[in-house]
Structure formats: C-alpha cells, structure tokens
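cron nightly-structures :: item 1 of 1
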Amino acid sequence: MRPPGGADRRWWAAVAVAALLCGGAAWSYARAAGEATRAYAESRDTALAAGREHVARLSSLDGRRAEEGLRTWLEVSAGELREELERTKPPADVSARATVTDAALTALDDRAGTARLIATVRVEITAAARTAGPPATDRKRLEADLVRTGDGWKVTALTALPATGT
C-alpha cells in the first residue's frame, strides 16, 4: 500500500532542500579555501615567521664577534632602522641571546607589503666582566614594523613597548 500522494511530494521536496543546502555548503567551503584566502594566509605565516626570527636576531649579539653580529643585524633590517644600525658600533663587552617566546601580527597589508608584529622576548645578558653566576635575564615586549623586499620580510622599526598590568 502506498502513502497518500502528498507524502511522496513532501519527501522529494525535503530531499531537494537537503541537496540545495549541501550544495551551498560545498560552494561556501570552496570559496573560503580559494586562492586569494590561501595566498593571504601564506603571506601572514611567512611575515610572522620572518618577524619572529628577525626580532630574535636584532635582540642578540655575541660580544666576542660584534662585527659579525652587526652584519646579521643589517641582513634582517631595512629603511631607517638599517641606516641607524649602519652608524652603530656594537658593544664588545656584552653578549645577549634572545628568544622570542610569543609573537603575533597585529596588521598585514599584503598588497602594500607591510606588516606589524608584537613579540615577547626573553634576553639572557652576559657581561664580559662577569666571571661567575648565571646570565642576567630580561623580558621585553617589542613591536616591529616589517616590509616585504626582494629578499623577503625585513624589519624597518623596532620599538620597546611599556610593560602594563601588575
């Protein structure tokens, strides 16, 4: 025995609505995973990774190889920061080893090739005059402006942020 004619139509209508919803979801997923979105995500990840590495390098220096450290600073910098570093004579009596403990991009303009990063950095400082004991540890919050160049992302400004809270 068949159900009344109206039940068949309602069942097929429900199947059609479900198919439309599935199709819409698939289209939305494909659109979200499109090339532009993926390219932006890749640019964001690249800028963040470069920014983390460059902030650590700019916050580190081996006092025994100060000129090599200055060359490293120049490799990862651009613009006014690079010009300022070219006029800098790094100290030969202090060594600092920095580790970026956390970082995030606060801005990214992929078309303009600019980004801004904030980072927390742990710096272990050892003075040449110190003969015993562990290195002093300093924690910093830094903001870095980045620009995309032909050689990848470079830091154009590095600013210490004031500590807030308790």
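cron nightly-structures :: done
DSSP finds four helices and four strands in the chain.
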